[in-house]
Amino acid sequence: MPDGGERLRLPYWPRALRADLAAAYVGLGETTFREIVAPDVPPIHLTGKRVAWLREDLDRWLDLKAGKEGTQGVTANPWDAP
Asked: Which CATH architecture has domain 16-72?
């Protein structure tokens, strides 16, 4: 995975994102992310002090912001379809 100084590109986004990466993933600064997104999308606790946000939860939040309410339960990968 690229270090923090390089521009991250898919598929290099980890599934669980620290606050700084989660903010970058949704296109916000970390402070704005914590004010606007974090209250709506709870993090998971990886260890006692380490929290992270799942990409699919952030995608769902973005879909809702874009007015795609019908997609809130959809996290399926099209490659998994029969």
From this structure: Orthogonal Bundle (1.10)
